[in-house]
Amino acid sequence: MNKGNLNKKGKISYRPYLVSSNKKNAKKVVINRYAKGSNKYRAKNLSENIYKSTEIVDEDRNNDEWIDIDIIKEDENYSSAKNTYKNAQKNLSENWRKISPKLFDIMIENNAINKDSKCFKCNSPAICYCLDCGLNTYLCLECNTLYHKDINLFHRKVFISIIFDKEEIKLPQLCTGFCEHEIKEISIINLKGIFKAKFPTCEGLVETLIRHKLFPSTPINPQVAFSFELFDIYQELLLEAHVSYLSFCRVLESLFSDQDITRNIYYLFKSAFHQYLGLKTMIENTINKLFSSKSQFNCPACPQPEEKNSKIIIALDANFQLKRMKSAGSNIGERIIEESFILNQNKYDEWVQNSINLSSLNTLNINNNNAQINVCDSHFKAANQTKANLKSNYLDDTGIFGSTCRHGIPLKFINLKGIGERFSLAEYILSDLHNMFYEDSSTFIVLYDIACNLHSHVEKSESRLFPFKSRFNWCVSIFHAYAHSMKCQLNYHPRACNSIGLTDGESLERLWSYLGRFSSTTRYMRPHHRLDILEKGIQHISRKMISNLACNLVKRFKNAYKIMNVSVKILKEMEQMHGIDESKILYYIQCQYESNFVFRQHLIGKELYFLNLMELHLYEIEISKANSERQLESLKRSRSLYIKKVEKCESDLDIPESKRWNPFNPIYSKYFHDYCERNLDLISDKLRKFRNEYIFKNSQLYNQDHIGHKLTLKIKSSIKDISKQIEINISYYEYFRLLAQENSFCKDYPKAIFNEIVNHTSDFWQILDISINDKMDNIPRIVIFNSIKNFNNLQRSKEEISLIVQELKRLYDFWMNYKIKIENKLQQLQQFNEKTTKNYGMICILMKYYKNVSKNLENCQIALNKIENYKVNNTVQVVDVPIYDLINEIEEDNLLKGDLAENLTELEICDNEECIEYEGEIVDKSKDCEEEIITEGESMDYKIV
C-alpha cells in the first residue's frame, strides 16, 4: 500500500453530523470531522454562542431526532422500537401510515376560511386573511389598509444590534374557550428563516402543527417543523427544475447562514417532504376520482373506449437513463403515491409467467402455418431478446418502459427490474389497452423503434397478442426509420402508413428529455421512493400537457395546412412539366413494393432458378482457380449443394436437364441484366446511408460545442467503422458494375471512389439522381422521389387536419362535462346537511379546480374559433421549391443541424452475426457493425427500381 495516500482527506461530501463513539468524547456531536481538539465537537456550554437563540434543538435533549434516529418516543397509541437502523425506519414508516388519514382530513380542512372571524387588532368583522402577517391572522378593512399599504410591504426585519436579538414567537390557540393546554416549543423552518415558537397543543402536537400549516419532521414528538409554503416551493423546483433534496438543503443553509444553522436538516427534510408530497397527491387523486372513471383514456383528445370504429395511435419506447443502484438500499414500507401511471411490478411478473405457460401449451396444441412477417434486415440491441435477460452486477433497476398517445400524453409505464428491453413489456401495455378498448371495431396503430421485429413476434402463436393481432397496425417512429432497411421503410415508415396523420412517434423521446433529468437523484433512492418521484413527475407533465393541448392542436393544424399547400403546389408543377399525376405516382409506389422482392428469401420461380444457376457457374470458376486441396474440397461441397437446388428448380419448372440455361442463352442474359441492376440499386442505397452517417459524424467533431476528448475518440472510432463499411460496399458495387459493363448494359452507373461517395455534391451522386429508367417513363429518379414524398405528405397532412378537428371537439366535450360535474358536486356539498369544516375545505378545493377547468374550456373554444377562421382566411405563403434540388443537399442540411447527436445514442445496432448479404456475392463476409443513419423525419428514402 502506498503510504502517501493514507493521509489523503479526499473530497469533503455533504453528510449528516456524526456522534463520536470513543470513550473520551462519547456522545459528543461532531460538527467538523477535519478539525482537531475541541473544535471538532459542538461546544458544551451553549450560552457562549451568541446565536444560541437560533439553535434548532436544545442540547439538553439527549434523544435528538437527527442524532439517534433509532429512538422514537412513545406517545398515545403509536408504537416505537429501539433496534437497528432498518427497524427504526420501518417503525417510522408505520407511524406515518397510521397518522396519514387524520392528517389528510386536517389538510383538507385547512383550505376553509372562517367566515365569522374577527380582526385580531380591533375585533371588528374581518374581510381578509393575510398569509404573511402570521398564522390565522384576520384583518378588517381599516386594519388591512393600515398594515399593508405603507408598512408591511415585504415583511422583512432589520435589526440595529449586530447580535441577533432573541424573539419569542407564540402561536395562537386554535380552540375556543378558556381551556388550558400544554405549551410545546418547536423550531420552525420557512422561507424567511428559522424560528423558535411556543404553542398550545389543543388536540395533539402533530395535529396542531398541521392546522398551523406546519409539517412535522417526524410523526412522533417532532422537534422541527417545515412550513407548507417551503414544501410547495420545493415541489415546483423538483418537478420543473429537477432540484435535488441535497441541493435545496444547501440553499437553505446558505440563505440562513447568519442564523447559525449548525445542524444538518437533510434527512429530516427528505423524510418529511416525501410524506407531504404523498398527502398532497392523495388529495389530488381523491378529487380526480370524483370526476373520472377507470375506463377513461388518459388523453381527452384521443378516442375513448366507448367509441366505435376508432383508431388509437400509441407510441412505445424504453429509457435506460433512469437507473437505480443496488447499493442504494431496499424498500422500507409501501409506496406513498398511488400507482396511476407506473404499473405494479408484481402484476407484470405474474402476467409474464402466465404468458410462458400459455406459450408452451400453444406450442404443443397449435400447428401454426401462418406466413411469418419478415423481420427487418438491420440488427438492433433493442430487438435482441437474449441480451434483454442479462443481469447487472451494479444496477437493481435498469430503466423504465412507457407509452404515450399521439399527442405525447403519458399512458402506462413499467419499471425495468434488472431486465432489458423485452417484447413482453410492449405486449403487456398493449394487452392492457386492448382490454380497456372493449369495442372490437376499435383498432390500434403502434409506433415503436423496432415495430417490424415486434410485428413479427406478434404473428407467432406464442405471443399473447396473437388472438387479436388484427386489431394492431405497426409503424416505426420517424426518427429511427432511417436506421431500418429499405424494404422495412416501405412497410413501416409513418409517412407511408394510412390514418396516422403527421404523427412522428417520437413523443416518448420528448418525455424522456424531461424525466431523464431525475436520474442523478433517483439512482440513489430506495426502490419505492424512486418510483414515487417518477410517478409524481409523470403526473405533473401529464397535467401540464392536457392543459396546453388546445393550443398545441392549433399549432399542429397550421403546420398541417402549410405542408398540404406546399405539397399541392409541387405536385401541380410536376404534373405540368412531366405529366406525373396521381395514377402515375401510385404506379411508382407499387413498383417500389415490387422491388421489395429483390432479396434472396423472396425469389421464386425462374428468378430463383437463375440465381442458383449463376451461383453454380461461379463455383465452377472458383474450382478451376483453387490452389489447395482443402479449398478445392470446400468448393466442391458447395457446388454439389447448388446442383441439388438447380435440379429441384428444374423439376418445379419442368425444364429438362438438356435444356438447362447457360450464359449464352437470351433468357439467362435477361435475368442477369435485372439481377445486376437490382444489386447496384441496393448497394447505392446503402452507400447513400453510410455517406449520410459519415457526414453527420464528421460534423459532430467540428461543431461549436466542445464535446470532450472521450466523446471525440468514440466518434472517431465510429467514423473509422463507417469508412470500412463504405469500402466494403464499394467493392460490391464495383464488382457488379464491371460485371454489367462486360455484358454491355447498365452504363448509367458511375465508378465509385471513396472521396466521391462521402461528398454529397460529387458527380457520382448527381449521375445517380438524374438517371432515368424505362419502367418509370424515362423520368429522373430525383423527380420521382420528390413526387412520392410530396404525395405522401399531402395524404398525411389531410389526415392530420381531419384528426385535429375531431380531437378539438372531443377535448371541448371533455372540459364541458368536467365543468358540469364540478358544478353538480359543489351544489351537492353546499346542500349537505352536515356542514363540517372538512366539507367546506373540499368546496374551496373544488372552486380552484372549477376556475382552471373554466379557463381550459375557454381556451378550447378559442382554438375551435381559430381553426374555423384559419380555414376561411388561409393566408399561408407557399414558398417556391425547386423541383430538381438534389435530395442529397436536403439530407446534408438536415444532418448538419446537429439536433440528432443525443438521440443517436438511443439507437444502437448490434454487430451482425452474418455479413451484408447481396444476391450471389463472392466477396468474403464481414462481421463489422452495420450502423444505419438516422435523419429527420420529413422525407423518406424510397428505393426506385
TrEMBL record:
Residues 182-255 form the CxC2-like cysteine cluster KDZ transposase-associated domain. It holds the Pfam family KDZ. It comes from the Eukaryota. InterPro entries: CxC2_KDZ-assoc, KDZ. Signal peptide: none annotated. This is CxC2-like cysteine cluster KDZ transposase-associated domain-containing protein.
